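Methods: example folding runs. The two proteins below were folded one after another, and each record is reproduced exactly as written to the output file, sequence line first and C-alpha cell line second.
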Amino acid sequence: MPDETTVENSTRAVPPAPAASPAPGSPATPAAPVNWLARVRGALHGPLLIGLIAALVAIALSFYGMLTNPDATPLTLRSAALVILIAGGSWGLIAWAIATAAVEAGKD
C-alpha cells in the first residue's frame, strides 16, 4: 500500500465526483443572473411590448420637438406631463390595440 506522499505526488488523473442532485423539497440551484433587458422582455411580450415601444418613441419625438422649437411649446413640468400622457398614452394605446387585433386575427 503506497504512503500518503506517493498518492499526493501521483500524476494519475482522478475524474471529478458527479454532482449530487438536490434532495426533494430543498431549494433548487439558483439560476444564472439575467440582465434587466431580458427580465423586461420576459415580463412584457407581444402586444404590450409593442405598445410600450411605440409610447417611448412618441414621448422621445415629442420631447425632441419641444427642445428644437421652444417658441411653440416651452419646456415646463406641465408640458412634459402632457407629452407623456397625450403622446405616449395615445400612441401606446393605439399600437397595443392594433397588435392585439393582429394576434387575435392570427389565432383564427
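Second run, written to the same file directly after the first:
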Amino acid sequence: MPTITNTPPKRKTSKTSSVTKNPVVTSSPLEKKKKQTQASWDKWVKECVVSVSPDVWLTHASELSHGAQLLGDLKKIPKQVLLDTPTLDYLFRCPSHLSHNALLVLNDEEVECLVSPESLLEWADKMRSGQYMISKESGFFDKIFARFELKSVVATADVYQKYLSLKNPNFVDITWERKPGNMIDIRLNTDERPTRMIASHALLLGIPVISPDMRFNAYRKEGLKTIW
C-alpha cells in the first residue's frame, strides 16, 4: 500500500523549460503571500466545498479498471506534466484519491505541473450546472494555483489546429474483473471536448497527462502518454 500524503508539498519552479518548440507556458500572475498552514488550508477546503455530484468527472469505471491492475512504479519522473481536471480536483479536495504514481510525480519538487485552461472551463461548467457547488467563488482558482505552484498553458492557434487534426476512435473499451470469472466490459466516449483539448495540449507540449481517466487511451497512437 503506497503512502498517501494529505497534500503534496509545494514544488520549486523549474529554472529552465524542456519545451522549446512551442513556448505556451505562463506563470500565474500572483503576488507572493505568506504560506498557508496545512490546518488552515484543510479548513478552507472543508468550508469551500458544499457538494459534489457522484462521479462528477465520469471516471468511476476507469478507476475500477485501474484498481484491478497491478501498477508498477514509474521508471522515470518527467520534468513536466499536465494535470487533467479530475487530478486537479483530487489535488485540491481529496489527495487520498490520487494514485501512487501520481503522488510520486506531484511530490517531486523538480517537476513542473501545468494546467490547461480547458480544465478550468470544465470545472467551472460543473459549478454552473450545480454538479460541483462551492461557497467561496472569489479567487478560487488563483488560490489553488498559488497553493500548489501550478502554471497555466496558453491555448494558442497551434493547440486548436492539433485539436482539429487529431485522429482517434470515438470510444475506448475497458475491462476489469469484478470477481474471479466475472468480467465487466464498458465502452467510454472519448471524443468529448475536454478530453480531446487536454490531449491536444499535452501532445503539442510533448509531455504526459496525469489522469485516472482511461478515455485518454484513445490518443496513445498519436503519441500521448498518461500517468496514473
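Comment on the second run: The chain has one domain: 59-227.
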